[in-house]
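@channel sequence for tomorrow's demo:
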Amino acid sequence: MGRLTTRQLASKRGRQKKAQRSGLQPGDMLQERYRIVGPLGAGGFSSVYQARDMRFPNVTKLCAVKEMVISTPDPQMRALTIKSFEREASMLAMLDHPAIPDVSDYFTEGDRSYLIIELIRGKDLDEWLEEQTDHLDQETAISWAMQLCDALYHLHSQKPQPIVFRDVKPSNIMLDHRERIRLIDFGIAKVFEMGDKGTMIGTEGYSPPEQYRGQAEPAGDIYALGATLHHLLTRQDPRLEPPFTFAERPISKVNPGVTPAFEAIINRCLAYDPKERFADAKALKDALEVLAVRPATAVFDSNPNLPIPQTGSPAAVTQTGTPAATTTPAVSQVQPIWQFKCEDEIRGKAAVAGNMVLVGAYDNNLYALNNENGEFIWKFPASDSVGGSTPFIYEDNVFIGSADKHLYCIQRRTGRQNWRYATNGSVYASPVVRYDHVFFGSDDGHFYALEVHQGRPKWKANAYASVRSTAFVDEERIFFGTEGGYIFCVEIASGKTKWQAQAKRNVTSSPTVADEIVFVGSMDGTVYALDANTGWIIWRFRSRRPIISSPAVHDDSVYIGSSDGSLYTLDMDTGRQKWTFEIEGQIASSPVVWNDAVYFGGTDGCVYCLNTKRGDMNWKFDTGAPVISSPTIADGVVYIGSTNHYIYALPA
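structure tokens (generated this afternoon):
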């Protein structure tokens, strides 16, 4: 396949527009139902039109009509062409994902086949590129890439066989009117079968080496996504360059706003050997999430075998409307009551009940310690990390999720397993128990309700994306966020969705509800306040960086941390900023309020205690390593873990 010139590309677009003009005209009627409004676009094999569904005469219900002209006179080729179109219709009909358009109808008239699909208002990224004069910024590129990873992982996870898109490129990606990414044009997507080979299909420049040999695998979509990101960030069209030369055109040389860590991720996607790319779209998204939240240590987090570099503890700076103190506080102003060292990092939150402190670590163990002196009582080993989930204590049971895809129920006194429940994805979300049922989300895209004593399922709700947010459960409703960028409200009795609201990026933050208002943060850097009954947005507050910290509400104030290094205090009713406290690190820790003080950890290695009125610092404690964990306070003691493997008991 030869290298296309700019003139050839322009000529190709001209032929497409000419073919588009020769198709359906405004006013044409299909199936006595769909009235053509006008053209939307044309590709090499089909044209797309906007139409009105006349079965809704009193409202204007618009849809998209994809038309394929069957020009071959050969009966066998005609049958094959129709079969290909039917395959796209059937494929789209069985998919259920926010980034993939819904299909509602299919039919053939004469020598043309038609697909009726959801109308997406917006523009494709090819058009978006033509309108831009500046390079795409890294934060937006990461957001788009993570949304595409969600869609591709959904395709690749289809049973019994994965679906390979085979043509990821800017013109097949839409940016809709809500600035959400949508994957369009499934004309050449196919069900992947091991060892299956066919003719080369796709787009030169974006297609991986193996696809040139007629081999389509999920790893090929990872490559094409990397090629698309390279194009968006550099504005260098790969169709105008020799194939597989991305390494010769470093992104950072053209776009200095791209960090080495992000460029390394893209280069891994573009590896010539499929085995050297990310294992799947989820693994790629995980690496991007780490990069978005912790750019300074992202390379280390993406490889758990590498240690996180130790950080110092520079002095914090307050912003209270008055000049900040000029004196630098001591490195550690409190001393631990006790400390206990686990075998790996602690990033989850501890739970306290009776005389026992329970905390999960990345060494796969759940630890039970004496809360008075930190002495070891027992530990429970899972098959993979339990460090991302906070244990929940209910009666004599402890519930915790694991990356080994299970939720565990463990005897609190002995540490023995009562039962475990398997999902189809890692369980990083923390469980919540109410009404003798345990509620939790999974990376398999579902939210579960189980009976606490035997682990029998009550119901499961489709969340369409990984659920890592811990739910807020009240008498009748459950509120949680998803990695697809949605906040859900479901009925506690049935799991049926009452409403869902949309952020622009992942909602890993856990919602809290006060006075019928839902407060939650998002990776889009925004704190949302939503009406608990309808999901309507009451107010938004924008920070400078992504938010994974969960909000705490106390005395009409909302406290939440951001990866921009600030702890924000907002007016509960208006979202107006009251005061903010800045550290020289990021705040992934979720704040806790107790006795007119707010407590949280930072990646600068410190645990902070601030006065809630003005944000003045009461004390801080330096652990010497990033503190991702959130504090738990019981009987005047702060329990919090650090990535240095220690859990500390500090006097509040």
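heads up for whoever presents: The domain at 6-117 is CATH 3.30.200.20 (Phosphorylase Kinase; domain 1).
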